[in-house]
Amino acid sequence: MIIGNITTMSGFLFIGFSDIRELQILHxxxxxxxxxxxxxxxxxxxIITTFxxxxxxxxxxxxxxxxxxxxxxxxxxxxxxxxxxxxDDGYISHAQCILQVFFFTSFAWAEMAILTVMSYxxxxxxxxxxxxxxxMHPCKCKWAVxxxxxxxxxxxxxxxxxxFSVTFCRTTVIHQFFCDVPQLIKLSCSNDxxxxxxxxxxxxxxxxxxxxxxxxxxxxIFSTVLRIPSAGGRAKTFSTCLPHLFVVSFFVSTAIFExxxxxxxxxxxxxxxxxxxxxxxxxxxxxxx
Length: 289
What we know:
There is one protein chain. The chain has 10 helices and 5 strands, in the order βββααβαααβααααα. It is mainly alpha-helical. The protein has a single domain (2-285), classed as Rhodopsin 7-helix transmembrane proteins (Rhopdopsin 7-helix transmembrane proteins, Up-down Bundle), CATH 1.20.1070. Helix 1 runs antiparallel to helix 2 (58-87) and helix 5 (138-163) packs antiparallel against helix 7 (194-225). The longest helix has 34 residues, at 94-127. The termini are far apart. Mean pLDDT is 83; it is low at 1-8. GO terms for molecular function: G protein-coupled receptor activity; olfactory receptor activity. Belongs to the G-protein coupled receptor 1 family. One of its GO terms (cellular component) is plasma membrane. Its main location: membrane.
């Protein structure tokens, strides 16, 4: 139904990686393989860290929740994208898009928050080993994880309300393989998208604070590690810290690149691949790392 220049649609249409059927099948196959790898890896870590009594320290407790987050994060987009590619139908309903935005923004923030908590755990373990059990008491760990999930829900609610308070009056074609907030904002009629900008600015500030905390934690960690006299002790410490640092660096760097680059009216395959690098690759690689 068209009223003036405002088109009321029941959903959105994704423009994926290609219109060529063979490439669509390849896209579905690769995404399905990565999803199954992520599913298997994160489930194995979640089960082992839940039931193995030797792995009940705070580090493994947070790792369990990171695996749960990775599994949830990749499940928001990939199954829908695989289905769209296999059926050659990029349609997604308005309600499904709302859910995608909510869960995507929630889990993205939760991922950043849990990585920050994990960096503090490593900082406490290495810089204050004698007080570690007091600092990272199980009750404090549970409160930290509760705060992560609660803040994630708040982030998702804020982004979802702000995004879908926008009036969509342009074509409902989304140049992505999921309901990406910047792409949705491009469909708005006027400057009513400023609410989204405000929410994004606030969450970006919070993410910057988290990233700064991680960097400061690792500065203290590395300065402490370099004072360890034995090479074996340094190697053991680095083996627990460097994988976490790599995960943080990969997730943050690709996300920053994606959100700082200008949003194009005709995104290229390169633009879509950058989205894959911060949405699909991290949950697949994290269990291996």
